[in-house]
Amino acid sequence: MSVFDELVGQDDVITQLGYALDDPAAMTHAWLFTGPPGSGRSNAARAFAAALISGGTESNDVTARVLSGHHESLTIMSTQKSVISIEEVRELVSKAQSAPVNSKWRVVIIEDADRMMERTANVLLKAIEEPPPGTVWLLCAPSPIDVLTTIRSRCRPVRLRIPSRDAVAQLLMQRDHVDEDRAKWAAAVAQNHIGRAKYLTLSESADAERRQILAIPGKLTSVGATIRLAGRIVDAAAETAKSRVEERNAAERAELLTTLGIETEKTIPPSARAQIRKLEEEQKRRSVRARNDELDRIFLELMSLYRDILMYQLGIRDGWINDGEVDLIAEQANRDGPDTTLLRIDAITEARQRLQTNMSPVLIVEAAFVLLSNPWLQEDRSGAI
Question: Looking at residue 266, what DSSP letter applies?
């Protein structure tokens, strides 16, 4: 299987990257992969890195190590923070000066290039302008305008888009051997996001989890019930996030202790405490981001529901995300009009934006649920009425 196979519906991108692999004149030292969530920009960058480092030989061992992020000629920056620090970029620039090992290329991937402040991006600028001959920078961001102009002007653009629903379903059927009906359902409810669609098809509890989320609007019956439900949602998201990261956290800590030559937790010398503390801080940030990702997933599911409700209210019966929830959609749609549904969508959009800040997640969810229960409070709050 080609490393580019998962880039379904991105034939132009595959062709562009293929030219660079085959023709030295088409190769450049800095690339900017852009595309909305679900477009596969990070996957595309890793696939390109695998093809570069393996020399186009499709070596299964080399490819697997690159795709997992563990090759000696690959460095990946994937931050859990809202901003990439200048110290982190300086460390990347230093690593980029090293000669590649067991490969013609040393590849550096920054998966969240949009999280660099101007001062930090300027540190990266010189490294991109004058890299060592064997170094390639692969930057990822939602859109070109999210990256400093001086950076993106020195990168070759690779623009990805979200694949079609049919393309995602076909991938699930061919690669993961999912039956057609479930593949189409997963592609629809995942809103064409390949990773999410795969999870939905392979998880036995995914369908039940979604139904619980879609039932949330019907439980917002009073202020007290709304506040209590918000608290439970945040607690559940934190528990889910903990279960996702705790195994990785434990493995990272054990690996660090081994590297430092520390046999047990009880024998940590003072000289190693700073490194242990740095790892703990990074893991804490990862846990916060994982929790916020869970909450964002819930908001996305609710957004899909209100999108379908709006379509129902406007008389549109095709292209729904939640095709199997006709009764629920009709019940909610008949309670209000399109203007009210739009206010609810606005409330969810605002909540998702707030998740990118340091605001308390409990307050974010409480505020969102209160507005879902009574969306006209949003108008009162803005002074429009």
Answer: G
**Average pLDDT, stretch 272-285?**
83
Q: Tell me whether residue 41 is exposed, middle or buried, using C-beta atoms within 10 angstroms of its C-beta: 0 to 12, 13 to 18, 19 or more.
A: buried
Give one DSSP letter per residue of 172-234, joined into a string.
HHHHH---HHHHHHHHHHTTT-HHHHHHHHH-TTHHHHHHHHHTHHHH--SHHHHHHHHHHHH
- From the list 230, 382, 381, the residue with the least C-alpha distance to 302 is 230
Give 138's strand partners. 31, 109
Radius of gyration of the chain (CA): 23
**More confident call, 80 vs 240:** 240
Q: Which two tokens stand for residue 110?
A: 């920054």
First to last CA, the chain: 59
210-238 burial, b for 16+ CB within 10 Å, e for fewer? Answer: beebbebbeebeeeeebeebbeebbebbb
- Cα separation, 155 vs 275, whole angstroms: 35
| pLDDT confidence band for 237 (50 / 70 / 90) | very high
pLDDT band at 385 (very low <50, low <70, confident <90, very high): very low
What is the structure's pLDDT at 266?
66
pLDDT of residue 56: 62
The whole-number pLDDT of residue 365 equals 97
Q: How many CB atoms lie within 10 A of CB 198?
A: 19
List Cα–Cα distances, 355 to 82, 163, 358, 359, 379, in angstroms: 10, 26, 7, 7, 22
Give the Cα separation of 83 and 118 in Å (integer).
11
State the DSSP H helix or E strand holding residue 156, giving kind and residue range, or none if neither. Answer: strand 156-159
Q: In this structure, what token pair is assigned to residue 104?
A: 């013609």
**What pLDDT, in 10s, does the model give residues 120-140?**
888 899 889 888 888 999 999
CA-to-CA dists, residue 253 to 270, 276, 279, angstroms? 16, 8, 8
CB-count exposure of residue 353 (10 Å: 0-12, 13-18, 19+): exposed
Residues in the chain: 385
Token pair for residue 292?
């916020």
Residues 6 or more apart in contact with residue 137 via CB below 8 angstroms: 29, 30, 31, 96, 108, 110, 127, 128, 131, 155
Q: What is the dihedral of CA 184, 188, 191, 194, to 10 degrees?
A: -10
Token couple for 353 = 């934006």
